[in-house]
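Protein modeling request. Please complete all fields; requests missing the sequence field cannot be processed.
Requester role: graduate student
Desired output: 3D structure, token encoding
Chains: 1
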Amino acid sequence: MSRSMRMESRVAVAALLAVVVSACSREVPEVGRLDGLHVPPAENLQIYSLSRGETFGELLNSSISANEQAGLLMAFSEHASPRRMRQGTEITLRYLREDDSLRGVDVALTPDQTVRLSRDQLGWSSDLIRTPIYVDTIFVSGEIETVLWNSVVQNASLETLTFADRNSLIDHLDRVFQWQVDFSRQIRVGDTYRFAFEREVRPDGSMRAGHLLAAELVNQGTPFHAIYFDPNGDGQGSYFDLEGQSVRRAFLLKPLAFRRISSRFTNSRFHPVLQRWRAHRGVDYAADAGTEIMATADGVVIERGRDSSYGNTIRIRHGNGWVTRYAHLQSFKSGVVVGSRVRQSDIIGYVGMTGLATGNHLHYEMLQSGQFKDPLSVDLPAGDPVPSENRMQWLEKRTVRMALLESIPGAGPVRTLVAEAQTPPPENPIASGGQP
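Delivered output (436 residues):
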């Protein structure tokens, strides 16, 4: 390349660099801020609630023709019966804003399921939509100043929960600790509690489901603990104390949640209907009509129907010669028939006053090998402890969940620790009989 050509090339490069530098030195122009743009919704919504005696069809009469109503109800019937809709069911009519024509209908069957009915050129179609949820964990502690119910329901850390959900937490505590402490008789002022509770939460903040991860209840100076352990991850876990012993027994102490005893087991009681003295071979629990009744142990239904003075009755046969009887029911749980297998805590029926009864209550009996036993004093067999093959997994899970309890502000360390909890696991779990 000649000397003149090299000079021209350098000049060109220098000019290009000058342009680039000049461009970079310029300030970036400001476009300013745009005003917010308001876009009206594509739909107008009208929300209704079914009145007593009102039908779904009657509610739709002013919105669509009879012919279209038939198609809509047929589409709805793919998921639910329009004849069995309850009073108070929320129904949302969705209208197109542009011409005010009915575009769709949403029917809230339950807090977790909504039938969405959509209209197009071919008619009506339907989809079953499940309410989305998120999972969180709440941490609660408190001291009982009057009664446990007040302490939990009025706990400041639960103020964002609905009243029903706070009440549900008490039910969970009662079910877990029922074999150690009778919440209706043994709770004292000054007792303390703390727990970590994992729950599924709907968009409106209400709880779909949940379970205790770990809990401590100190009753009259004695600490009781419950740690949830689910080795298979199938949702069928159970609760154990800090030593790995089951906190549950083969039978629930009572078939109703947190209810008042109205009559005890006795050899001589004055019958309010028959007006004479006779033996009362069970326990009566006062409860509102329709209250859910639980099977107190795993078993098989051997009787379901009307049984003279007992009214609507269910009898369940359990292992080792045990039989339980539930009497005066208002109605039976759907699907519970003779031959049905039930698990502990399954709902089997609802409180009523059928048979010889003067008020709504449940009469509950326990028999072993044909002999009546007092449900309030019988020595119930314990549940199974943590399986030996899951022991190492249990120790790890226990350490984590005890830490959850200790993380609750103001609660302090777990009241009782076993020596094993402070011993690190062996380096080779297989050599000690554990699982890899």
